[in-house]
Amino acid sequence: MSEPSSLSTPPTLVEQLIADYARFPREQSFQLYADTVQFRDPMTQFRGIRRYQEMIQFMGTWFQNIQMELHDIQRDREMIHTRWTLHFTAPVPWQPRISIPGVSHLTVATVDHAEKIVLHVDEWDISRWQVLRQLFQS
Fold first, then answer.
1. Is the pLDDT assigned to residue 138 strictly greater than 80?
2. What is the reported pLDDT for 6?
3. 100: which residues sit within 8 A by CB, 6+ positions away?
4. β-strand partners of 39
5. Which residues contact 131 (CB under 8 A, 6 or more apart)?
6. Is the dihedral of CA 71, 14, 47, 30 positive or negative?
7. Is the peptide bond before 4 cis (omega within 30 degrees of 0)?
8. 86, 66 in Cβ contact below 8 A?
9. Within the chain, what is the greatest distance between any pair of CA atoms?
10. Ranges assigned E (strand) in the chain
11. Are 49 and 39 within 8 A, CB to CB?
């Protein structure tokens, strides 16, 4: 009988994303993204890994008690779809808790011989106005 291999297989892209959601916005796996990744959500759009890192860092600095609740993640060939709810405490004196449910659509392609996310599109299940209204609800 042979001994089990001491080599472990690296986590899949989906497994790495699950781990990133669990610790968001800390210690994100930015190496999963192409240098030229495109990002879009209801508030902004841009291109480039540096801008993506800056956005995540801004959220981690500005918002308090961030929790990214992952409800579902599915991979279908070159697409990964996630369903989530982002919770955070808004940086205003009365500190309301904000919740934004939504989905992400991630397009995966081979870049420099590795699978990378080349497009990240977030869609919210509520409007920007509904998010703003949460600031003033008791």
1. no
2. 53
3. 85, 86, 124, 125, 126, 131
4. 46, 120
5. 98, 100, 124
6. positive
7. no
8. yes
9. 66
10. 33-40, 45-47, 64-76, 79-89, 97-111, 114-124
11. no
pTM assigned to the model = 0.89
Cα torsion 44, 48, 54, 55: sign: positive
pLDDT digits (tens, 9 = 90+) for 97-127: 999 999 999 999 999 999 999 999 999 999 9
Identify the bridge partners of residue 111 per DSSP, sorted by sequence position: 114
Which among 68, 73, 42, 37 has a CA at the least distance from the CA of 54? Answer: 37
pLDDT of 45-104, one tens digit each?
A: 999 999 999 999 999 999 999 999 999 999 999 999 999 999 999 999 999 999 999 999
Q: Tell me the β-bridge partners of 124.
A: 102
Structure tokens at 125: 């299940």
Q: What is the distance between the alpha carbons of residues 113 and 107, in angstroms, rounded to a whole number? A: 16
Tokens of 113: 């011989």
